[in-house]
Amino acid sequence: MVGSLAVLGVVVTVPGLSHFFGSRPLGPVGWTIAVASAAGSVLVPAVAQGAAGVVARTGRSAGRRA
């Protein structure tokens, strides 16, 4: 997984390779957006699953008071 990510990073970053594959090299803003999106796609479901587990164990949502 990490190896394929590294290869993709090289292909997208190197101007000759990226042009060959029909894309433009990413700059710092593009890399920031890509990394933040990837991190969010991993973290948001994990947090949601954890919150769902808490609700399932306690039988009530965190916002409800007894």
Automatic annotation (TrEMBL):
The chain crosses the membrane at residues 28-56. Keywords: Membrane, Transmembrane, Transmembrane helix. This is Cation-transporting P-type ATPase C-terminal domain-containing protein.
